[in-house]
Amino acid sequence: MTAVPRHHPPVPPIPRDVVGLRGFLHAARTNALGLWPLAAYEQDIHARRFLGRTTLLLNAPEAIHRVLVDNPGNYRRSPASIRILRPLTGEGLLLSEGEAWRLQRRTIAPSLAPRMLPLLARHVLAVAEETVAALRTRVDRPVDLLASMQAMALEIAGRSMFSVETAGAAPALRAMVREYGLDLARPHLADLLLPVAVPTWRDLRRRGFRRRWMAIMSGLIRDRLASPPPEAPRDLFDLLRAARDPETGAGFAPDALRDHTATMILAGHETTAVTLFWALTLLAAVPAVQAQVAAEVRAIDLPAAIAAGTIPDLPRTRAVVAETLRLYPPAFTLARAAIAADMVGGRVIAPGTLILIAPWVLHRHRKLWDDPGAFDPDRFAPAAPPPPRFAYLPFGAGPRVCVGAQFALMEATLGLASLIGAFEIARTEDRPVLPVAIVTTQPDHAPPFRLRARGGD
Ligand code: HEM
């Protein structure tokens, strides 16, 4: 592999010292990626007191292992995460706990298991080809690839899991995600302090949002609900409809089905869309790596491989996706609140302690990575040593690891392959694109790109 100069994509300023309460609240509301001081990127555990409560940011593998893998039952989602995610995902898998979680996970996981990937890949490629066809009409003109990737990922989620076309609902759905991200997704002081049972005034507004949002979701599955379930489940929606509680024999009520739809549509497209966007931004900045990906893709017949039920090996493209997820982890922080006392990384944890595991920090930790700010897909080349244990967690770990991880990796790889196989991608301006933490790791603006059809098309 030819060595290419290392590109260091721009990041929000890192404070030299621990920020005070006002700075903390400001960062939480505007960009949580700028919350952590330099020391957090070097320490095993970064501790701070916040309004009388201890917050621990974990970077040490054994500490992360304890919370996510060894003793996950002792750590529930934090009040702020519940407040912000509940209006979007309702009582779906992301926020459910205990037996309800177990039943949902057992029902949903098989539809996204590795053996389902070839089937899911057909949907991915079909939608990616439609996206490429639409973009062909826009060559040599400025294109908003963020919007294209959001529409593409949404349509993939809708078709592959629910057999629904999203195009009709997409504008309203995307507008609501944007509206939420700019306002109610940003935690204020009361959101961080009060227990979930005590609604904040923003929670009251979030309830209004939830009603409107869930109405869109109900619209998406209306036709599916109106037709009788088939003998053999064909997609995730059929599996959810066929699921029965092992104790009571009850199936999911229509409201629960709607919440599952909302969860899977949101979790299943928002994250993959930004991954694709950041990967394209990185490849636009480093044409030499883009050329390597293009060469790899153009050497194989992608549609024939997918039609034959195989998922082609694209090691360079996969390495770019993996490195993108390191530099721009869509889930920038996993937050948990300790239920009972525990020992984590040699520290006594009191009940109520807020535990944060921030892939954003972990993936840029100075002791875990060489030149952590550099875009270097060689880190994930097949022959490279694997990353240090628990230093790379774009999908989390333990029983609550992302249920869609394999699907997401396949989707991002095939989506990127389709686009880079078809177009040479460049930016039309130099303005830095900075990551901002709003539910996921978003760009601070949607930069225009210029596409050129690759030779031979
Ligand atoms: C690049 C894309 C993705 C990333 C980076 C990502 C990341 C994550 C992470 C970090 C978690 C664990 C959160 C925690 O422990 O607090 C998670 C959970 C989850 N993800 Fe993903 N995800 C992605 C794509 C997807 C897709 C495609 C789907 C659905 C098809 C999905 C559905 C879910 C669900 C339902 C959960 C909750 C699982 C549970 O609690 O049992 N995600 N995801």
Question: How would you portray this structure in words?
Answer:
This protein is α+β, with helices and mostly antiparallel strands. It has one domain (82-333, 366-453): Cytochrome p450. It is built from 16 helices and twelve strands. The strands form four sheets. It has a five-stranded mixed beta sheet with strand order 1-2-8-5-3. The protein has a three-stranded antiparallel beta sheet with strand order 4-12-9. Strands 6-7 form a two-stranded antiparallel sheet. A hairpin with a 2-residue loop joins strand 1 (45-50) and strand 2 (53-58). It is globular. The model has no long low-confidence stretch (mean pLDDT 93).
CATH superfamily: Cytochrome P450
Largest sheet: 5 strands, mixed
Low-confidence runs of at least 5 consecutive residues: none
Mean pLDDT: 93
Question: What is the class in the CATH system?
Answer: Mainly Alpha
Radius of gyration: 22 Å
User: Would you report the number of β strands?
Assistant: 12
CATH names the topology as Cytochrome p450
At CATH's second level, what is the architecture? Orthogonal Bundle
Amino- and carboxy-terminal Cα gap = 26 Å
Shape: globular
Helix percentage: 40-55%
